[in-house]
Amino acid sequence: MRRILNCTAAALAVVTGACETPVTPSDILDPQEGPIPGVPSGNAFTLGEATLLTGSASDAWPELEGDHVAWYRAAPAEEEGVWLMDLRTGEATRIWSGTVYSAFDLVDGEIFWGSAEGLHSYRIDSGTLNTLATSYRYYRDVSVGPRYIVGTARQSSDRPFVYDRESGTEWLIPTPTSVPATRGWEDWVLYSDHRETLQERQLYLHHIPTGEETRITDQDQLLTTANADVSGNRVVYFARRFCPGSLELYDMGARTTGAVDLPGICPTVVLLDGDLLVYRHNASGGIIYLGFLDLGSGDQVELRLQNPGNWRIDADLDGTRAVHTSANGLTLVDLRFQARQPPVADAGGPYLVDEGAPLTLDAGGSYSPSGATLSYRWTLPDGTVLDGASPSWTWPDDGEFDVALTVTDSEGESAGDVAKVTVLNRPPNVTVGGTGIRVASGTFSLSGVAGETVTLLGSFDDPGLQDAPWRWSVSWDGGELASGTLEDQGALPPVTWTPAEPGTFTVVVEVEDKDGGATTLEVSLVVERAPLPPLRVHAGSGEQHNVPALNSSGVFPVVAFGMPEAHARDFDVATFRLGPASAAPLMEGGQRPRLEDRDGDGLDDLVLTFRVPEVGLSPGDAEVCLAGATVAGDALHGCSPIRIAGGGGR
């Protein structure tokens, strides 16, 4: 439903009906009324009327909260400054003298404005005047949020500024070019900028806590933030700087843009406060209207301005009242929409979930005041649409996201809500092994042999399907063996190396996703000594390997030749055994073990003597084998041909 109130005879009129309670011209149009210059007398104001508060055409940027209105008066010079009126008494007071360069704000009983010298505030209840910041010059466009105050300030040129109310610090947002104006809402800053690669100014949203910047407009649009506003997860802007043009609405949750269907010629933004849009447009014959549009219900009302003075109209809202400017001064208007009862959307949240895990959304708080049946539609950041009051969705990546809920009742009325979803990053799952063995534990030990190649195998999977690239590395005892990045989950490249020495070493395998989630596995690698070459053995006397007859009580020598890999002096004599019966060598008298260079190679050889009956030889044996070890524990083994006297051996 759209209602236009065209009350030409009574100047401005009651918003709740078709001019049932007109306000006389003497109440509205006489700029000389009131004992205070430009301010009419009176003790209270009646809702349902359009009431002139001041009579100065130089009043600008009004701010309305509860029983107070604040505004800036530019002229005459002796009255320039910030003014405050108590609506209960009609008393107006100038609280600060000086020049204000653009819009300011009234929040929680405190007025905030900028000047050439700094950022100021005034507490209405205590009358305390403060200067909050002075780092820059020409503070303007002041918007106040729960934590941040934002606006425009000048260093070498105009840039968006942020003042942190908690820490008392301030800073400029670096933009490539000077910005004409700034708007703010909660943690967001809206400004326009002219980048080198863009033909026209574009609108940018800057998220203060993260510094993330998003361009929300098309390149062929000519824009200025002076005719845009941001509130309630929406940005509304005039899509051309000059006529012709139209109003566009950007949904911060759904990241979509749509036109606002308004009448008249060149509707321009005056204010956006939650769902309520205040705009100004021209009609034929130079008539100017001030319109109010409820973006949630679609209800709309327009006031014809008898004497707008010029194209600029400023306004503010509080509950069911609005204050606006014209050439006549500030006017207070009651807004009583005869609105339908739309549904109420509640997207639940805020939600917390791990990436790769399903999250069940909950619209159970949504309802229809009229008891109508509701349908539910969820729009996710990637454009996915889910139906139902409690659908589930698995989030492929971590981050902060907005999910938009639209509820529609059986009468076709809709309402929306946005919920924050925080998706936590989860580190990759890593498995490692060697020679084809895979385990998911860092307690598993790999084994290898000194001097031989060791191959480490690994693989990983990640619940974050969009966590590429993954960085991986393999280190061995503090030194990196290999590293790289992978775009796909699965097997890690095989890593090979050759340990030179035996021992127990630590192998570290690490896989890290793009968001810093890392998993590190430590694996023990046991490197054993390489086996020694076969021991060269000569059994028997002389060159023919002769051994006495088995029925004799005789002895025969056995030579274990030294080698470069194991010198004979390092042989552990007590470990040597010969033949099937594992006979021990004689250790006393002239038969005790001794070192000699029997083959003339410059290396000592070990000469051992064994008793024939103890060796366990059989007739026909053609060889006998000697086994032992080095003092370091390395195994030694070798065989020698033999010829047994009186036997079948060769």
End-to-end C-alpha gap: 122 Å
What is the CATH topology descriptor of the largest domain?
Neuraminidase
Q: How large a portion of the residues is in β-strands, by DSSP E?
A: over 45%
Strand count: 55
* Unreliable stretches covering 5 or more consecutive residues: 1-47, 435-443
Number of helices: 2
Helix content range: under 10%
Task: Describe the protein's architecture and organization.
The protein has two helices and 55 strands. With 650 residues, the chain is mainly β. A five-stranded mixed beta sheet has the order 1-26-25-24-23, with no helix packed on it. The chain has a five-stranded mixed beta sheet with strand order 30-36-35-32-33, with no helix packed on it. Strands 37, 38, 40, 43 and 44 form a five-stranded antiparallel beta sheet that branches. A hairpin with an 8-residue loop joins β51 (594-596) and β52. The chain is rod-shaped, with a radius of gyration of 46 Å.
Q: Summary?
A:
The chain is mainly β and 650 residues long. The protein is 1% helix and 48% strand. It folds into four domains: 57-305, TolB, C-terminal domain (Neuraminidase), CATH 2.120.10.30; 351-424, Sandwich (Immunoglobulin-like); 429-528, Immunoglobulins (Immunoglobulin-like, Sandwich); 537-644, Immunoglobulin-like, CATH 2.60.40.
